[in-house]
């Protein structure tokens, strides 16, 4: 059973389109995250939700909107996609009370905007 | 603020060579320190961790010791294999739930 699963794994789309990436975890964690990894492998946190509540919202364009329907799901919707949005997006989760045990990451969604 | 600095790559080694990837951190107090590994086309996996000074984390032949005096957490392995080729990330977590990752070090091991 996959602990943190993201869909789709690959996404190719044209500039200006709107797309969503879904993330689900079956670990019982109550905190979930979205990270963006650029072409140089640099990881930057975008958002964090604890039990459906937004707790970290880094400086990202407001074209990016996270949605957490319940604590096991954190989806990422992107409006008006731009070339610079091309990257690998990782979802992760951790227990809120013990994040020092480490995050569990999904396998990533490679987004290519053409 | 909290941050992690790790040596830039790429690093290329022959099989059975000794590996060191340097990592230093900036944080007040006592953060927890981690090494994550990302194999090609995959997500990040926790490799090892240490939660207090002088702790040694180890896994799969890799080791790292939490050195408070030098604010370091260098990753070492005595004999690398081709299957160790990956990108390695040093990270810390301190107050709050946010991880701070280094920039990643790409390792390629050639037969």
Structural class of chain B: mainly beta
Q: What gross morphology of chain B would you assign?
A: globular
Strand content of chain B: over 45%
Number of strands of chain A: 11
Average predicted confidence as pLDDT of chain A: 90
Can you walk through the features of this model?
The complex is a heterodimer of chains A (114) and B (111). Chain A has 114 residues and is mainly β. Helices cover 0% and strands 55% of the residues of chain A. In chain A, the strands form two sheets. In chain A, strands 2, 4, 5, 6, 9, 10 and 11 form a seven-stranded mixed beta sheet that branches. The model of chain A has no long low-confidence stretch (mean pLDDT 90). Chain B has no helices and twelve strands. In chain B, strand 10 (86-93) and strand 11 (99-101) form a beta hairpin. Chain A binds chain B through residues 4, 31, 40-43, 45, 48, 50, 55-56, 90, 92, 94, 96, 99-108, and chain B through 32, 34, 36, 38, 41-46, 49, 51, 87, 89, 93, 97-99, 101, 103-104, 106.
What's the gist of this structure?
Helix content of chain A is 0%, strand content 55%.
Please supply descriptive tags for the structure shown above.
heterodimer, A: 114 residues, mainly beta, seven-stranded mixed β-sheet, four-stranded antiparallel β-sheet, 11 strands, globular, B: 111 residues, six-stranded mixed β-sheet, 12 strands, 0% helix
Secondary-structure blueprint:
The complex is a heterodimer of chains A (114) and B (111).
Chain A: E1 4-7, E2 10-13, E3 19-25, E4 31-37, E5 43-50, E6 53-57, E7 64-70, E8 73-78, E9 87-94, E10 104-105, E11 109-113
Parallel strand pairs in A: 2-11
Antiparallel strand pairs in A: 1-3, 3-8, 4-5, 4-9, 5-6, 7-8, 9-10, 9-11
Chain B: E1 3-6, E2 11-14, E3 19-21, E4 23-26, E5 32-38, E6 44-50, E7 56-59, E8 62-65, E9 75-77, E10 86-93, E11 99-101, E12 105-110
Parallel strand pairs in B: 2-12
Antiparallel strand pairs in B: 1-4, 3-9, 5-6, 5-10, 7-8, 8-9, 10-11, 10-12
């Amino acid at each position: 059973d996959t602990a943190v699963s993201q869909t789709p794994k690959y996404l190719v789309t044209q500039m200006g389109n709107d797309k969503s990436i879904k993330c689900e975890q079956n670990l019982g964690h109550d905190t979930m995250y979205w990270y963006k990894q650029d072409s140089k492998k640099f990881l930057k946190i975008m958002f964090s939700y604890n039990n459906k509540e937004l707790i970290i919202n880094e400086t990202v364009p407001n074209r990016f909107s996270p949605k957490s329907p319940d604590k096991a799901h954190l989806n990422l919707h992107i409006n008006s996609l731009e070339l610079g949005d091309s990257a690998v997006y990782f979802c992760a989760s951790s227990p809120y009370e013990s994040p020092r045990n480490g995050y569990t990451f999904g396998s990533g969604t490679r987004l290519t905007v053409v | 603020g909290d941050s992690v600095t790790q040596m830039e790559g790429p690093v290329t080694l022959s099989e059975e060579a000794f590996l060191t990837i340097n990592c230093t951190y900036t944080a007040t107090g006592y953060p927890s320190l981690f090494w994550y590994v990302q194999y090609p086309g995959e997500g990040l996996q926790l490799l090892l961790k240490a939660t207090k000074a002088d702790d040694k984390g180890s896994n799969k032949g890799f080791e790292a010791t939490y050195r408070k005096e030098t604010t370091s957490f260098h990753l070492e392995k005595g004999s690398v294999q081709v299957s160790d080729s990956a990108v390695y990330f040093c990270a810390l977590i301190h107050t709050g739930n946010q991880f701070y990752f280094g920039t990643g070090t790409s390792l390629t091991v050639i037969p």
